[in-house]
Design brief:
single chain, 777 residues, mainly alpha, 28 helices, 0% strand, elongated, phosphoprotein, ubl conjugation, glycoprotein, transmembrane helix
Length: 777
């Protein structure tokens, strides 16, 4: 049951409602008393200079003097009261979206004006819509745009915005032209339609409207992925709509489009999109640079944000660029630098003023849409309107399903069937399509009224039918909703850690993905851009520290607003309050006691020795590395011994070479008794002495000499054995034999070789440690 204040508010709404529809009519029908009196006085003066003094007017009425601002204020007041009144009835606002109720209010206002016999004013004029009502909504969306999910899904958004809008425009326009040419024997008004006007109509009706999407999706609280996909598409398809609109409007009168025109249209799309983004980015940088010097005049800080943004929109519209993309770029570029320069009060002012301005504009757009529907003129054609609604639905479904099939091949997080349904069902049309249709010249497009009627029908169908049923469908399909979780410093730390980790993985793999380029952009921003656009020490402040300061300020404000926390002391605190505030004096500290007082000194020293040895081994084992230097650590114990052995072998080989030069003994002559006995013993029958000529000098080599082919080279044998050992054991090096085995004469002293040669990659304990033994005995 409504309380007394709620009844009073509803009564005020009714009075304003009636005043908005009756007062302008009465004022318009009443004569201008002041103007009539002045004309009468002028006539009397000309007649005979017989001036008759009239009494001074105590009260006079001159409505035409304040008509425009008064009616604007009246519309804004009506919209605000209607928006306030809908939320006083929770059952109604929970069933019907706010946009539907506002359109109904517009229909009622337009109907009352029509019943009064007056002409309905053209409230939804295209200049008023594009220059006054649309910019606040887009600026609010761009300034508070979630940059991270938007950039992570930018490829998917561009596919839906560019390819999807082109598909919808040509599918709807082409099939609509084909339907209009059916039954040539039965001539009708539809046979007058040509292909280019149909394509122009398809380009107008195919674009998703950001105002309608915002109005519906903010009420159903859909998850962030689906919201950014549909809303991002509605923002970025503006460039495609602008190019197609101007292209088909230009050549609709000519009747033909050449290949060169198509090529110029593609270039025009790039110019419109990229040019709009550049214009917005330039104005955003100018706004950030200007806010660098506003520390002494804080009161005008919000003004720069609004003025620079609006200038960006007007500059883009002046060159027929995408004004929506310009506003989005301007808001997204300026926000991080402006918020670092301005005060907290200025930030609060910008936030609430943008929300208020965009909310009022959105409310006025839907009310004006209802009024314009009553205004007309309409040209109803059942075939054209019905086929348009059906084709819009079919084209949207086919486009989303087909593009998602391609997109899912490149996405890590795939779009499910439920997600595709919500994206297709959330393609709402709104006042942008109506305003573009209203701009058409009736001389060039004689069926403009039929176009407007079909556009209004599609808008009403998407807003009322799809907008009212999408919330129950989300509940029925159990689609994941948005979780209202506050960002914490822990989440920010892990997010930055994962960003750095993924950047490092991409660098190791040699794949330059978006994390790589994002890291490059962040480094450039930190090194150059911040120093120019952010004043003071805030330019050198790390991102994590800045986020911590922001969260700390936010929590402090919430604590003060909620009335919680400790009561702050007064300016001149009393003795009692000072006792409560000041910390109590701690008792004098006792002399430090031993932490291990119960242990004997010997046991404590043993524990420290164990800890010292284990911690030292841990430092030796856990060494940093990267993919470029995956080599053995020269400080490992086993490798050090190996290097010592190798150095000794090199020294031994050098000594042997020196011995070959000086200690070579000549071999015995072949006819010596020793050689004769050796040959005779080996083969008595083959023994024969060959005469040796005296003129030929010979070099005789003893068998014991290193130069003999039968001699054994110690270094070669050692290397061959070492290679065979490595082939059998890999990188594992076994310790030398213990004391039980016999020692060879050429072997060094093994007292230093009892240390275990572990594998270089083994991080475990040494072999002489028992794994089951407790760490602290």
């Amino acid at each position: 049951r409504a309380s007394l204040p709620e009844r009073g508010l509803l009564l005020l709404m009714v009075l304003v409602f009636l005043e908005g529809s009756v007062l302008p009519l009465g004022a318009a029908s009443s004569p201008d008393v002041t103007h009539q009196a002045n004309s009468d006085n002028h006539i009397v003066k000309e007649a005979g200079h017989n001036f008759t003094k009239k009494p001074f007017p105590v009260l006079s009425l001159d409505y035409h003097h304040i008509q425009a601002p008064f009616e604007i204020s009246l519309w804004v007041l009506l919209a605000s009261l209607m928006k306030l009144g809908f939320h006083l009835i929770p059952r109604l606002s929970g069933i019907v979206p706010e946009s539907c109720l506002l359109i109904v209010v517009g229909l009622l206002v337009g109907g009352l004006i029509k019943l009064a016999g007056e002409q309905v004013p053209p409230v939804l004029d295209s200049r008023l819509f594009f220059l006054c009502l649309l910019p606040p909504i887009i600026l609010d969306a761009g300034y508070f745009l979630p940059i991270r999910p938007f950039m992570e899904n930018l490829g998917t958004i561009l596919m839906f915005a560019v390819v999807g809008t082109l598909w919808n425009a040509f599918f709807v326009g082409g099939l609509l032209y084909a339907v209009c040419q059916i039954q040539p024997g039965n001539p009708s008004i539809l046979h007058q339609l040509e292909l280019l006007p149909c394509l122009l109509f398809g380009s107008i009706i195919s674009a998703v409207d950001p105002v309608a999407v915002l109005a519906v999706f903010e009420e159903i609280h859909i998850n962030e992925l689906l919201h950014i996909l549909v809303f991002g598409e509605s923002l970025l398809n503006d460039a495609v709509t602008v190019v197609l609109y101007h292209l088909f409007e230009e050549y609709a009168g000519v009747g033909s489009v050449t290949v060169m025109d198509v090529f110029l249209g593609i270039i025009s799309f790039l110019v419109v999109a990229v040019g709009g983004v550049l214009v917005g980015a330039i104005y955003g940088i100018l706004a950030a640079f200007t806010s660098r010097f506003t520390s002494h005049t804080r009161v005008i800080e919000p003004l720069f944000v609004f003025v620079y943004s609006y200038m960006a929109y007007l500059s883009a519209e002046m060159f027929h660029l995408s004004g929506i993309m310009s506003l989005i770029a301007c808001g997204a570029v300026m926000r991080p630098y402006v918020e670092a320069n301005i005060s907290h009060k200025s930030h609060t002012t910008i936030k609430y003023f943008l929300k208020m301005w965009s909310s009022v504009s959105e409310t006025l757009i839907f009310i004006f849409l209802g009024v314009a529907t009553v205004e007309g003129p309409h040209n109803w054609n059942w075939t054209f309107v019905t086929v348009t609604v059906i084709l819009c639905l079919v084209a949207r479904v086919i486009g989303v399903v087909g593009l998602t099939y391609v997109i899912n091949k490149f996405r890590i997080v795939k779009l499910t069937t439920k997600d595709q349904f919500i994206v297709a069902y959330g393609g709402l049309r709104g006042a942008i399509a109506f305003s573009l249709g209203f701009l058409l010249n009736k001389d060039h497009f004689p069926l403009r009224d039929m176009f407007l009627t079909a556009i209004i029908t599609v808008i009403f169908f998407t807003v009322f039918v799809q907008g009212m049923t999408i919330k129950p469908l989300v509940e029925l399909l159990a689609v994941k909703k948005k979780q209202e979780a506050k960002r914490s410093i822990n989440e920010e730390i892990h997010t930055q850690f994962l960003d750095h980790l993924l950047t490092g993985i991409e660098d190791i793999c040699g794949h330059y993905g978006h994390h790589h380029w994002k890291d490059k952009l962040n480094r450039f921003n930190k090194k150059y851009v911040k120093k120019c656009l952010i004043a003071g020490e805030r330019s050198k402040e790390p991102q994590l520290i800045a986020f911590y300061h922001k969260m700390e300020m936010k929590q402090a404000i919430e604590l003060v607003e909620s009335g919680g926390g400790v009561k702050l002391p007064s300016a001149m605190p009393s003795a009692v309050s000072m006792q409560n505030i000041q910390p109590k004096k701690l008792p004098p500290a006792k002399p430090a006691e031993r932490a291990l007082s119960n242990l004997p000194k010997g046991r404590e020293e043993e524990i420290r020795k164990i800890l010292r040895s284990n911690l030292q081994r841990t430092r030796q084992r856990l060494r940093s590395y990267n993919r470029h230097t995956l080599l053995a650590d020269p400080y490992e114990d086993g490798l050090g011994d190996l290097l010592i052995k190798k150095q000794k072998m090199i020294e031994l080989e050098r000594k042997i070479k020196d011995m070959n030069n000086y200690l070579t003994v000549p071999a015995a002559p072949p006819d010596s008794p020793t050689m004769c006995r050796a040959r005779l013993a080996s083969d008595p029958q083959a023994y024969s002495m060959k005469p040796e000529p005296d003129s030929v000098p010979t070099i005789q080599v003893d068998l014991a000499s290193p130069q003999s082919p039968d001699s054994v080279n110690l270094m070669d044998e050692f290397r061959r054995a070492e290679q065979q050992h490595e082939e059998d054991q890999g990188l594992m090096m076994k310790p030398p034999s213990g004391e039980s085995g016999p020692k060879k004469p050429g072997e060094e002293d093994g007292s230093r070789e009892h240390k275990l040669m572990r594998c270089l990659s083994d991080p475990g304990p040494s072999a002489d440690e028992d794994e089951d033994e407790p760490f602290l005995p």
